[in-house]
Design a protein that fits this description.
The chain is 29% helix and 26% strand. The protein has 212 residues and is α+β, with helices and mostly antiparallel strands.
Length: 212
């Protein structure tokens, strides 16, 4: 009986020792896996945007045109240029004045990918935002106060595609298109006016420098 008890005790000690060895041998592997996870570079949103165009390179920008009366905005004038009154974009009106351009088509300024298209109300109204690739990276075009939105988020567009119509933000303004081009594509919707213009480009200057 005593012999059996001693034998049983030896078996238990041996099993516990084996389990400890297994734990110790597994531990470095677990630590290594955690280290790999922590040190792997995280994909940035800009990388994600570029990947969108790598999937369908035909939608990479090949020149920019004006977003109204394509390609040269004939019959329209820039009522409030970039920088005037701290304006972060341009306000495009028909030369016929008033609400005469209400419902006129808005065109994609270049090939791109619609990343936002919804009615956010207030002074912005219906807004469309489109990402575009350029030789310098990625820019975003923004079209605000729309009367109608004719594209959906996640849709690819070609330069000159009709994406919406000119509106007045539900009657807040006389009909016009508020148009922006941004080289910081991670900016929030913003206010439309600011003394700080970092991340915003002069749309007319940009388009004229990127015609094709």
């Amino acid at each position: 009986m005593i012999f059996l008890r001693i034998l049983f005790f030896i078996v238990i000690v041996f099993q516990v020792s084996c389990q400890e060895v297994k734990k110790e041998s597994a531990s470095p592997s677990s630590i290594a896996e955690k280290s790999i996870i922590k040190t792997e570079p995280q994909i940035t949103r800009l990388d994600t945007i570029l990947a969108i165009f790598e999937q369908k390179p035909i939608y990479k920008a090949r020149g920019f045109d004006f977003p109204i009366a394509k390609p040269n905005a004939k019959g329209y004038y820039n009522a409030q240029p970039f920088g005037t009154n701290n304006h972060l974009g341009e306000d495009w009106n028909a030369v016929t004045g008033g609400d005469s351009d209400l419902g006129d088509p808005i065109y994609a300024t270049a090939n791109g990918f619609v990343n936002f298209a919804t009615d956010i109300g207030g002074g912005w109204g219906k807004v469309i935002r489109i990402w575009h690739t350029t030789v310098d990276g990625v820019v975003e075009s923004l079209y605000a106060h729309c009367d109608t939105i004719l594209v959906e988020q996640g849709q690819y567009v070609f330069k000159g595609d009709t994406i919406g119509t000119i509106g007045n933000a539900g009657g807040i303004y006389l009909a016009h298109l508020h148009f922006e081009i941004r080289d910081d594509v991670l900016l929030p919707i913003g206010a439309g006016y600011a003394t700080e213009t970092e991340g915003y480009l002069d749309p007319t200057k940009f388009i004229k420098a990127h015609r094709q």
